[in-house]
Amino acid sequence: MYTRLINSSYRIMKKVFLFVCVIGLGILFSCSDTIVNENKPDQSVNAPAISGYFKKRVLIEDYTGTWCGNCTRVAYAIDQVNEQTDKAVVVAIHNGNDPYSFDGIAPLKNLILPNSPLALPVSRLNRMNVWTFPEPTNTQDALNLTGNNTTLGLAMNSSISNGTIDLDVNMKFLEDFSDLKLVVYLLEDKLIYPQRNYTDYYNAVNPINDYEHNHVLRNALTNILGDDLNGTTHGTTITKHFTLPIPTSVTNPSNISFVAFITGSDNKSLNARASKANENQAFEINP
Coiled-coil regions in this chain (predicted)? Predict the structure, then answer.
């Protein structure tokens, strides 16, 4: 009788133990699928990369002009940033009496300077952050907005053939987002045109006759303030497709590039990506 009681108790305890183990494993595996959603990683610039998260890039929008002699100060600062990191995404938005002037600049101007004129040079980090003057000695402003661990990734695939551009912008989300917008730019590189220079940068040469203008904004494939994104929930991947003829403003189609970035409700860029034409990108996810 006593032996049977012991055996019966043992069987009950074993079942309870197995039940607890099963429940524990269920919790463990269910949490492993949502850990990114519930526990955000350290996104600071010096935080080590954590497996499963995305590289975080800083967006630099440089409002500039070939006629603007002080704009070389910001251009030099961008050169300095690019020497220190590969995580900068640069857009040069020309304005004024300039062969590369972008006609659709007004909404951006009204966003960043609603009550002031656009007196160049002007630069913004992640669209809304003022880059501290003088920019070349404050490159850390830009570097601090980069990182190894963010929960939003972008990748682009493009082809240019027979005068037509096909572009896919892929976006992946590792947490639930809302009120996001996508901005997609078409840029042109290697444009040679004299640049005024009133600074000591670039050997104080004025004008710089063979100056190479890169990252020049030629067209916005979305609303310049962004198109609304829906379905931006944890674990989802969204693709936006764009088909358009090569803009007449483009001088050399072989020098086309693209920039895509996603903004939040405060209009700040959460992450950005640049891509050359005819490039097929994967998400920049940490191994």
Answer: none
Whole-number Å distance between alpha carbons of 36 and 176: 10
- Domain range list for the chain: 2-32, 38-276
Amino acid at residue number 261:
F
Greater pLDDT, 15 or 267: 267
Confidence of residue 5 (pLDDT cuts 50, 70, 90): very low
pLDDT, one tens digit per residue, over 179-215 is 999 999 999 999 999 999 999 999 999 999 999 999 9
Coil, strand, or helix at residue 131?
coil
- Rounded Cα distance between 174 and 152, Å, is 6
**CATH assignment of 38-276, given 3.40.800.10, 2.60.40.10, 3.40.50.920, 3.90.1720.10?**
2.60.40.10
* pTM score over 0.90: no
Q: Name the 3-class secondary structure at 96.
A: coil
CB of 261 closer than 8 Å to CB of 154: yes
272-277: Cβ within 8 A, 24+ apart: 272/57, 272/58, 272/59, 272/89, 272/126, 272/154, 273/57, 273/89, 273/154, 273/155, 273/156, 274/89, 274/90, 275/156, 275/158, 277/158, 277/159, 277/160, 277/165, 277/253
Reduced DSSP (H G I as helix, E B as strand, rest coil) percent helix, strand, coil of the chain, to 5: 25, 35, 40
Euclidean distance between CA atoms 213 and 260, whole angstroms = 20
Q: Is the pLDDT of residue 69 over 70?
A: yes
- Strand-pairing partners, residue 245, are 164
Paired sense of beta strands 256-263 and 269-276, if any: antiparallel
Cis peptide before 134 (omega within 30 of 0): yes
